[in-house]
Amino acid sequence: MGISTTIKQVTFSVIHLDQVENGKIVEHWEQGDVQELMQQLGIMFFLALG
To answer: Whole-model pTM above 0.85?
Structure first.
């Protein structure tokens, strides 16, 4: 992606959802806040509207 490495520590939110049937996980969903991560890494750009 053309982004230099850093030693920055970042934090961002992630949620995990599991569907359990008969004591076994049969499906797993995961969603992370990628926008928050990109902002902390300095690779998120915003467009001014109006």
So the answer is: no
